[in-house]
């Protein structure tokens, strides 16, 4: 078997047994990147020299019997909204094209401390806003299963990188489905942990009360191994839960007999693609054969999920992105041109506008020149929804509906252990298809956003293919902090199925 | 202001820096005076990805102040974002408190300076925690106006205290600020140093006028840029005058024009209208998603209240009741701050007479502190040293002029009482030496002895003068006593 | 509530974005659509539903007041688009007179 086909768990064993070296594995990844990146475009930056150096150090540690963790030497890729000290972290935005953080995100610190080899930074929708990685200012990423199609988003680069076998695992972030939806489109596993399970410190914020960092891998087992590493309390993140981290990888073999699986009625309504429906129905049968009992469950407010999500996420984003103003970091418009233009206008025309000062112009021009259209749309929506006179009707009402959505889940989890449904209504769409109609793109998040609003855990797993050979994703949802249950169910399912072993054919 | 009788109505908004070592949301130092941009990190620079974590000490200090201001402390308090763009605000929002502040509905009583009458009660609307911004400095370079930004201050914890419009004169506003500053320094909550920016005041003021048509109010003006309590008083006085003039010419009343912001120009002693930012009032407050609420149980509030022992009002009363000072003296000492009162109490505890100690503190000690720009903590004379000195004075070993010299010596060199006396050659004259000296003097001046015998006891004064010429350390009172005794003894057979 | 071009212009100033006329029109159309879509939330009666700002019920997460090292100045200023040796630089804070 080629090295690039080994999972994280298999690499762990092979490295421990001395059958492979971190350097070989890293080199194999770099070679594969060189082979396929031109058509996939998953990465914004590949740190070839740095990765090889890290791998060599890892081999040195292992030879000396001082491996930092069982995963010491395993390569990993990072979504480029996770801060890496001394290395550009861009959010795929012109705004941050030159931004070099002076610090590491907590997740990055933990990965380094465990000895993983940081291979590179992956592409994303600008500031994680989007579902196709088409709103990316610094790169274009395509779906390894069909290069005309999008990889999903916003963690599209991470998903494509894992699906294309250029790295065994990657870290993504999920605000409304940004890990699970691209995982489904690319036929891999994506875990959105419970809000507060993984530190957000150093994750460049999109919507602070919804953002969560999580692993993207080919198997549930690998997701468990990575979650173990990156989860846990962080004194630098006040919204990070103080609970200890279970050994997720040690509880994967739980018997599913008697597991109560709820099928979300609302996730099978109109708008669901037939191939997706069929694949998810067969997955249901697999779980039945594993001993799970199937129950019909309703989440009556889920149809309000998208509206609630777009209001809350945009409101928080409008504030989170206020710091990109061209003053302390990031892009600044051509200042002398600005001053010249202003002087000319004032010389000729009307009295100076009270708010049209050089500084206000600097803010407005810098932001409009360096932020993409989708980012600007969301900032506008959020600013509008928070502004005087609209706050109650929009933002506050959204927070109330958010409570209703959470209560739906609480009620459902009183009756069942896990919820099951499709991850997305349809498989990956063609590049450009939905660009003219942002709202239709938003609707791809229909089944995923409510987990973020409620703060619960969600797992996307490959569960089949369309006739055209596009992967289909299954979604399992668990109550807060029940990742162990979620991952065990996913693992048992993958032991019974082989969807995750299919490899996209790349030229 | 011709016919109309008027009342000046003033409300204050005071920002005080809490006495923490580190900032509100990161662990950078809050030390004043560091070179620009040397006390910053990713959090207070607002760098992408960084997150705030609330400083426990800041919450404790804010609570202490709020309880001392008799505020209600709700069980739950949370943080909000106040969104606006300014280059000294790196995140584009200030983390502050909006609808659930840490405290509300308190009051501060202003003592009557005469020590009589009922105190004036100024109601506190709310006191909440928030972060400070950085500093913008204007810089003219080659015709280009540029601003330079220093973010050392960004994220410094502030307590914003907002009063009800209960103050009725510029002087009363100054009294309020003095008393508030005193309270906060007794609480050890803030240094309240306006020069270093650890206390800042904005004032809202308007006039209520009785006119033939009934009572009217002038538009409210917010005054900023006042850099001392005196400046607050002057700015308010100026503004009251200006509003009266304006009302007489325009007749405009509250509600007819938007609220105006004016800056105090200390040089020109006037307020000037500031550019108003048209949309600046829309701060789009919403709950800060990066922080979680703080709950304060009633028991914790009770514990904070129980730990508030020595507030200015209490200490004034104690100085009167326990040490027999009169209210005026007690007020003078208390107004100097808790450290001076502590020093006074230690001096008394070391055996000094309270009144004498009070007098010395008000005169010699305060003068010394002023002249040398020292705080009482920096005074080289410890309370025990001052007490020893005052005891010597009380025992008649040192007269006041000599004691002052000793005190100065102690201040200059940090010496003990004994060492200072020695250095000044002030040594206690042994009894036998003193007796010998008196005998000699009497023998050398029989005419004085005669005069005394003849009933002119004031003639002894000359002897005292001569005794001091021979030995400057002799105690005049003792010379007088011994000489009288010797003369009397010689008379009896 | 219908959204006008003027509303959008006002919001763009609040958001410190500069939309040229053509984009302003497009933004108005887009925002109007989204706003119409999110209007569906108004059909829910939420009078007795407390808002949920955060899914996690944590409270009193506080840090000790203990000094930690700051960034050195060079590192702090490193990402500044315009600076001198000590400070960030911007056009005059008080606008107009330049
Ligand atoms: Mg304030
Ligand atoms: Zn800091």
Write structural notes for this entry.
The complex is a heterotrimer of chains A (507), B (493) and C (98). Chain A contains 16 helices and eleven strands. Chain A is α/β, with parallel strands linked by helices and 507 residues long. Among the domains of chain A are: 3-255 and 455-501, Amidase signature (AS) domain (Amidase signature (AS) enzymes, Alpha-Beta Complex), CATH 3.90.1300.10; 330-370, no CATH class. Chain A has an eleven-stranded mixed beta sheet with strand order 1-3-2-4-6-5-10-11-9-7-8, sandwiched between helices. Chain B is built from 15 helices and 17 strands. Chain B has three domains: 5-299, no CATH class; 309-424, no CATH class; 431-491, Arc Repressor Mutant, subunit A, CATH 1.10.10. In chain B, β13, α3 and β14 form a beta-alpha-beta unit. Chain C is mainly α. Helices cover 34% and strands 6% of the residues of chain C. The longest helix of chain C has 18 residues, at 21-38. Chains in contact: A-B, A-C, B-C. At the A-C interface, α9, α10, α11, α12 and α13 of A face α1, α2 and β2 of C. β2 (54-55) of chain B pairs parallel with β1 of chain C, so a sheet runs across the interface.
- Strand portion of chain C: 5-15%
Query: What best-fitting shape of chain A do the alpha-carbon axes yield?
Result: globular
**Helical residue percent band of chain A:** 25-40%
Number of strands of chain C: 2
CATH class of the domain at 5-43 in chain C: Mainly Alpha
Topology pattern of chain A, helix = H, strand = E? HHEHEHEHEHEEHEHEHHHHHEHHEEH
Low-confidence stretches of chain A: none
Structural features:
heterotrimer, A: 507 residues, alpha/beta, Amidase signature (AS) enzymes, eleven-stranded mixed beta sheet, 40% helix, B: 493 residues, alpha+beta, Arc Repressor Mutant, subunit A, 3 domains, three-stranded antiparallel beta sheet, elongated, binds magnesium ion, binds zinc ion
